[in-house]
Fold Glucose-1-phosphate adenylyltransferase.
Amino acid sequence: MTDKVLGVILGGGQGSRLSPLTQTRSKPAVPIAGKYRLVDIPISNCLNSGIHRMFVLTQFNSASLNKHIKNTYHFSHFSTAFVDILAAEQTVQNAGWFQGTADAVRQCMHHIVSHEFDYILILSGDQLYQMDFKDMIEKHIEANAEITIATIPVTAKDATDFGILKADEENMITSFIEKPKTGLEDWVSDTGAEMQGEGRNFLASMGIYVFNREYLINILNENEEEKDFGKEILPRAITESRVLSYQYEGYWTDIGNISSFFEANLGLTDEIPKFNMFDSNHTIFTRARMLPPSKISGTTLEKAIIAEGCIIQASRIEHAVLGIRARIGKHTVVTNTYVMGSDRYQTLEEIELENQKGNSLIGIGDRCYINNAIIDKNCRIGNDVKINGGAHLEDGDFELYAVKDGIVVVKKGAVLPSGTVI
């Protein structure tokens, strides 16, 4: 697999639906599950599948993503493995930015084809799932397909948000429609008894593709006006080529907006989460940090995930994820919240100086109440702060925080003075 397949991970566009988490970073660089970045998910899926050569295509706010990949993915000098960044660049042939998923691959193709491979695996950098790509590629080869699209059964409610496919008895895709709003009854597929029992009768594209090398080169060169795989390249290819549907039935979610991001993170605290971080066959790789174990004093914990290096003195943490180096003060209650943590510790001297000045420290202070919130990295939340998200709050974007679908998102590095109420 290492010799046959090359992985390409798309860094995504501006990520406006995930704002304000994407104001200073790209979508794949957004912290998830307390200690990882979103880009770690597709990279880990590749490594677990024996695919050790990957390019990550980036454009917007890529500095933190570049730094994370540079500091994380190191391989032996005797190995051909790599995870390399390909940033949008001006060339003699093209002076513009990436205009879509297909255009991004097209503009980077001169770097990609310098490597030997038979198949190219194209992935999104902002999805949460665990998939064995070996099986997908083997099915692609067995079917003599030119393209394979990973598909997942979805309900009628969800079908309107995806590209929906129809396949024949050999799983060859025969038709495609982008985000259908009407006429759904014509797009029902035989997804199997178990999926149909859950009302998941429609095959949705997951944005995960396998292409034969020469086929991809040819189809990108044929019509340079086609900028996007899902909207332009694939609908045309389905009418002209052998396009296989590879049906996946495990957990998968597209981290497209604040609500889905929030639910995906808090879902990890379930007794048996749909996304299993504890599966030794699907290790999630990330940057190795030399952090101390977390220290917890006088805290009641209920359905909580706590990363390394935290200092917790809260009275209660419930249904919450606490990221690396999170600091939470005495008599504080945190519920239904993702606290991303911080990039550094303050020294005792810094803490003493900040206390003398009456400034808030990095972390969450004493006697706070935090509910239905996302606290981005390096925030300073003073004492006696109350944040109570919920349906009663109107959506809005403010200087220090934003509200989306009732979720209060405190912006990266924000300083909330003691006594603040949201």
User: Anything to note?
Assistant: Residues 147 and 211 are 5 Å apart (CA to CA). The chain is about 20% helix and 30% strand.
